[in-house]
Amino acid sequence: MQPSNIPTIPSQCFLGEGPLWHTGRQSFFWVDIEKGNLFEHHLATSVTRTRHFPHRLAVVLEGKDGKLILGLDRQLARFDLETEELEWLCGVEENLPLHRFNDGKVDPAGRIWIGTLSTKFTEGAGSLYRVRQDLKPVVQLPNLTISNGMAWTEDDRTFYFIDTPTRQIREFDFDLESGEIRFRRVAVEVPEDLGFPDGMCIDQEGMLWVAHYGGSGVFRWNPKNGELVDKITLPVPHVTSCCFGGENLDTLLITTAQENLSPEQLKKYPQSGDVFLVKLGVRGFRSSLACF
Fold this sequence. Notes:
Pfam families: SGL. The protein has a single domain (16-279), classed as TolB, C-terminal domain (Neuraminidase, 6 Propeller). Helices cover 2% and strands 51% of the residues. The chain has one helix at 263-268; strands spanning 8-9, 16-22, 27-32, 37-42, 47-52, 57-62, 68-72, 75-79, 86-91, 99-106, 112-118, 126-131, 138-144, 147-152, 158-163, 168-174, 181-189, 196-202, 208-213, 217-222, 227-233, 239-245, 251-256, 275-279. The strands form six sheets. A four-stranded antiparallel sheet has the order 1-24-23-22, with no helix packed on it. The protein has a four-stranded antiparallel sheet with strand order 2-3-4-5, with no helix packed on it. The protein is globular.
């Protein structure tokens, strides 16, 4: 799939990431991790607002009472969009100042799953945490390098996860009541020439939409047989994440990055760091709300 005239939101992120569809506000949110910027794009009016935080801002999730949960450096905070008040909730790896959060999602029971990495990208330095209502982060997967994309199946029995440098999408048994996971198999092996799997979401047909960093697009993978089904080709090399949104949950918002591109490459790919909106013939799911 190579859509022509893809609608673009010119956010020029250094490292755009973490897209979220907020049904209540009918807005897409996403972040620029390194610049600490939170973007909100209201779909009907095409108005984009930017809020800034003096932290690395890796994750934006929807919490209770219309508030957001933000992953700032290595801490979770509750953010009130009306008062702009920030309430710190919990943190991880406080003795590792080179670490930060990376990708995060809310599971179907409202628990937050959020990963870490070393900003030096030290192999095996990161972890994936699960955070319940008691706000005590518990390691679920240790020894990760770039903890990244996550998705749950509609029946709440399967969890998919990406540690980017492995080029694998791993499949786990998922227990909804306890939140426990158990490795089942490698569902997808991404060939080297397609870049690295980054952020991910799932559609109502059970297919995985995966942003490929260095792969110039979003790839649709069938996790049942590991086959590539489709690709959205974009005019930028580093595609970082994607999520479904819009009134019918059939619009894919895609984030991209300028990092690791030379001045010559940025001239060649001037839309790097912008956000793309692609209308699809399939639908995704509404994001789960955090339980706090």
